[in-house]
Specification:
The protein is mainly alpha-helical. It has five helices and no strands. It has a single domain, classed as Four Helix Bundle (Hemerythrin (Met), subunit A), CATH 1.20.120.
């Protein structure tokens, strides 16, 4: 052994080396995790764009739902007017209103599907419920339109009794469509409200992440 050699100095050197390697590994791991997070989270500009898309789509769906509810209510009102007051002109007016309601329901379903595709994870259930309700409006208004077409045909070709029976079936179908459209309007409004709340939370520092599409 060399004079002045300290046996413990080698062990201390090895310990310092191990510690240095450990620190380096920890730093590398942290940097790797940060890079993964950066790759998975959209940059601020992209996140803002996603929020704007989600908000716009939710508002469009809500507006389409109000339009569909208004059109369905008008058609149902006209259907009720025909009851007991049979005429070919009134039957044709009901058919025209029923067609407008069916067209509005189709637009609602399209807008709701688009909003669902842009929904946040936390609002996806509300979006799917709104979409299901819009599908029920489409089905109900199409059924009402079919019956209104039949009613108008009978008003022209058949006797008063048959025409009034067809008009009554049309009125009932239009009432169902009105109820479905009213429920869809409530669902779309709830989805829009939830979307705006989620956007406000995600825009705060440390808030929820921006929209993720699934």
């Amino acid at each position: 052994m060399s004079p002045g050699f300290d046996p413990g100095s080698g062990r201390r050197a090895r310990a310092r080396l191990v510690l240095a390697f450990g620190i380096a590994a920890g730093v590398a791991g942290a940097m790797g995790a940060a890079s993964v997070a950066a790759a998975s989270d959209p940059p601020p500009a992209a996140a803002s764009g996603l929020r704007q898309e989600a908000e716009r789509a939710a508002r469009d769906a809500e507006a389409a739902a109000r339009e569909a509810a208004s059109a369905a209510a008008d058609a149902a009102h006209r259907g009720r007017l025909v009851t007991g007051r049979w005429s070919t002109a009134m039957a044709e007016a009901v058919r025209h209103a029923a067609r407008k309601a069916a067209d509005a329901a189709t637009r609602l379903e399209e807008k709701t599907a688009l909003a669902t595709a842009r929904a946040f994870d936390e609002t996806r259930d509300a979006a799917r419920e709104a979409q299901a309700r819009s599908a029920r409006v489409t089905a109900a208004t199409r059924d009402a339109l079919t019956r209104a077409d039949e009613s108008a045909r009978r008003a022209l070709q058949d006797g008063r009794q048959e025409a009034e029976r067809a008009a009554e079936a049309t009125r009932e179908a239009l009432d169902r469509a009105e109820r479905a459209a009213r429920e869809a309007a409530h669902g779309a409004a709830d989805f829009s409200r939830r979307t705006l709340e989620a956007i406000k939370r995600s825009a705060r520092p440390g808030g929820a992440p921006a929209a993720r599409r699934g």
